[in-house]
Design brief:
single chain; alpha/beta; UDP-N-acetylmuramoyl-L-alanine:D-glutamate ligase; five-stranded parallel β-sheet; four-stranded mixed β-sheet; 10 helices; 14 strands; 21% strand; globular; kinase; PfkB_Carbo_kinase
């Protein structure tokens, strides 16, 4: 067990991705799991990475739990639900771009915040708490309230709290509700990691700098606006917003691009790198991930030069 704890809270799912010959490949993924995976790849050994969710008692839930344990992601905060199972999604690719189909109505993760005491215990033991807009979207409103209250208190206590809005409108009741909860989450986040294309569509931001400014005004302590391989906006410690550009790559599969950026960025920030240097680390990780199929590239294949 590491001396420090990175806790990722959310929903992991069974992933079906296209393989050769019209076959499908089964794996496990999900936005918060993906970021935990790449944080584990990039963080030193004195960090423990743990996943907080809820699984069923079925064989697929057992396989997922074993998969996490076998890949050095702690399952000690995972609860089990006798009435529900894990969600499933399928990825179809067209010229490197993805489309998704989901089956998640009976996902046990929708109850991940039902045991507030267990959630509070996990957060209290953690140094970094990571969650996403999907984490919020799948919860009942009262459970969203509880989660944000606990994470907000953790931020006030000096812990690093990280939020990726990861906007998925179909998961929310309506656009107004979605915008309200995502904006509220900013106040709980010492670091926010939005993606510009999603944000522009939902909030009407005209450029990445405006997007970063909106998140800062909403209460986030630090902001990085990802941009699908384009220029990235990074809020610096002096209050300025830097616009950074990186070498582009042609994606094979863009699944997990933003999540892997998050893992690399956060590992660099936790190692003491400045936000702009950490963004370069995040881009380095994401550029490798999008050149391989699937959301989770084996950790030993990730090469870090910085």
């Amino acid at each position: 067990m590491g001396n420090k704890l990175f806790l990722s809270i959310g929903e992991a799912m069974v992933e079906l991705s296209q393989a050769e010959g019209g076959l499908w490949r089964m794996g496990f993924a999900g936005d918060t799991l993906n970021t935990a995976w790449y944080a584990r790849a990039c963080l030193p050994a004195d960090w423990e990475v743990a996943y907080f969710t809820r699984l069923g008692l079925d064989p697929f839930s057992e396989r997922m739990r074993d998969f996490l344990q076998d890949n050095a992601i702690s399952t000690r905060f995972i609860a089990r639900d006798p009435e529900r199972t894990v969600g499933l999604y399928a990825i179809e690719l067209h010229d490197g771009e993805r489309s998704f189909s989901y089956w998640r109505g009976q996902s046990a993760a929708r109850r991940l915040a039902d045991d507030e005491q267990a959630l509070n215990t996990a957060i209290a033991q953690s140094d970094v708490i990571y969650f996403s807009g999907i984490t919020l979207a799948i919860l009942e409103p009262a459970r969203r309230e509880a989660l944000l209250r606990l994470i907000g208190a953790a931020r006030e206590a000096g812990k690093t709290t990280v939020f990726d809005p990861n906007i998925r409108p179909k998961l929310w009741e309506d656009p107004q509700t979605m915008r309200a909860w995502l904006t509220r989450a900013a106040a709980a986040a010492s670091i926010a990691l939005p993606s510009f294309d999603d944000e522009a569509a939902v909030f009407g931001d005209s450029d990445i700098e405006q997007c970063a400014t909106r998140w800062l005004r909403a209460g986030a302590g630090e902001v990085v606006v990802k941009n699908g391989g384009g220029p990235v906006a990074v809020s610096m410690s002096d209050g300025a917003i830097a616009i950074l550009t990186f070498d582009s790559v042609k994606p094979v599969d863009s699944t997990g691009a933003g999540d892997s950026f998050n893992g690399g960025y956060l590992a660099a920030r936790l190692a003491g790198e400045a936000p702009d240097k950490a963004a370069a680390r995040g881009h380095e990780v994401a550029a490798q991930v999008v050149c391989r199929p699937g959301a989770l590239v084996p950790r030993e294949q990730i090469r870090l030069s910085l």
